[in-house]
Here is the input.
Amino acid sequence: MTATVSDLHMSPRLLAPGGAPADLTTHEQRYGPLPYGDPAALLRAVAESGLTGRGGAAFPAHRKLAAVAEAGRRTGRAPVVVANGAESEPASRKDRTLLALSPHLVLDGLQVAARAVGAAAAYLAVEEGASYLESALAHRRDPVAVQVVRLPKRFLAGQSSALARFVGGGAALPAHQNPPVRERGVGKAPTLVQNVETLAHLALVARYGAHWFRTAGTPAQPGSALCTVHVPGYELRVVEAPFGMPLGRIVPVDGMSAVLLGGYHGAWIPAAEAAQLPLDATTTGAGVLAALPADRCGLAETARVLRYLALQSAGQCGPCLNGLPRIAAAFQTLAAPGPQGTDRADIARWAGLVEGRGACHHPDGTVRLVRSALTTFTPELDAHARGLCTATDRTPLLPVPQEH
Amino acid sequence: MTSETLWYANRATGAVCLVLFTVVVLLGIAVRLRGKIPGLPRFGTVSLHRTLSLSATAFLALHIAFAVIDSYVGISVLDVLVPFASDYQPIWLGLGTVALDLMLAVLVTSLLRARIGHRTWRAVHWLAYVSWPVALVHGIGIGTDSGTDWMTWLTVSCVAAVVAAFGIRVAHSARAARRTPAALLRTAEGARP
Amino acid sequence: MDPRIDIDRTTCQAHGLCAELLPEHITPDEWGYPLVAGTPVPARAVKRARRAASDCPVLALKLTAR
Here is the structure.
């Protein structure tokens, strides 16, 4: 079980204290009963709270809820709510930890979201296992029945249009969103796809209100977020931290050269700079904070991740299918000492060609990672070009799933 | 028009249909293969495929009309759309009717293409690959010119062209299906010095 | 109210008709896929844009109202 930490000057909101899974009784004792309010009042509370999505895009939750509710009214089709617990980001553990420790908080949030948009059907999508979810559901008396769906283990399976497609009986591949999933998703109904952590926060806003939610974080960035913290030599930790907290308080940067912020679609930041950055919804991405020790090669780590991202392309869109493998292959060359030829220029060109030219944001996120690596690791790039590598430890750091 | 004239006209338009529909199939395959016809822009290949298919349909209409009008063979309007029910050579004529029915499905869906969406349109369009050989067998079986040299030469050429083009098309599809991200990554890594 | 070009990139197979019909709005990239300007289609090009939409062999290109 992933370790959790609750000493960051904020009483934990989402994760059960003591690190033990909370059953329904414990859950109700801790949080109190769930009020099923009037949908309009609910939407107002969510808007005032400033809650944003915790799946990576940080889209304001109330706008998404309102859009789906409105689409439901306009089309006359009852909306569908899908809780996204896929956590296809290999470096992230927050969603499965949240589901394991506080499943009822997530399931509460799912019901609150269903009430807010007028949904008639609800799904909880997870990657595999988690059989405790069905038994947790069996103990509840939810107004809207929830079906647990298990997704294939692919990076893009948790992408909202891929998820909606799979839940609707199709392949777990991204679709061209015209109209978007929030207008036409599962079974042609307006579909709300919301990350499980967002739903957990939503359950708390429904109980305690917007003002309470804003007692953590900053006025511009209210609330808290779960982060998965990778520090070599230490056990993987899931931490709940308030927005605005300097990252250096969440992930130790002593002896580190850089921090990967967000996930595999995130960005490498130099350690000293990262320590001062506040936890910010617009950059926190999937909540991954991975520290790179100074004796490891950030370029080699990035090359491994890029290879994975290229293999995980859905292969549907020409630019992504053609560009990502070429970028990954060129980066392999940059990742080791030796001549670099035209690789840097080629990568820059291909990055420009794939960005924004796919049905989903897979190429965009990959390009963000690439560009941040080329910027943050410029000294290492130049050293490699001269035939040197400053790294002495070649142990792989970031978790990259094995190829089949 | 005498029955004999009608009969010649029917055979002549039948031969023209063979040639035109063969070219239409070849052009359709050319579009699928993203091939470029020298001197024509790419939208020209699509245009030509479409225009010729309408011309071929016009000749087919004449071919059918001449057969129906000719009182000697007793082919009714019903026999044009319902296969294997005629008095005159029911099998061979019936095949012609089947080919026509399939072609009409292809034609109608193509006219309504933007409305029905690409997937439905494509599924029906595959019937063209059934319609063409069925029409060919109809022509060979029913045709009184079957034994002549020029008709044999024409038929063999058309068959050879369509079989070759179809073979290339299938090979192209198989190659495209193998272009997965993993395959492209292997190629890109393998191409490195 | 000028229409915009919307391309379903999961369907696009780089046939290239759209780039031929709308050379000032669409350029093929080094793999043959369309690079779209993103700006609205001016009135003088709308007829060609409609043709690109109806002639695309895989119906990947559509004109949207906004």
In short: Chain C touches chain B at residues 11, 13-17, 20-21, 51, 53-55, 57-60 (CB under 8 Å). Chain C has one domain: 4-64. The longest strand of chain C covers residues 4-7. The domain at 4-64 of chain C is CATH 3.30.70.20 (Alpha-Beta Plaits).
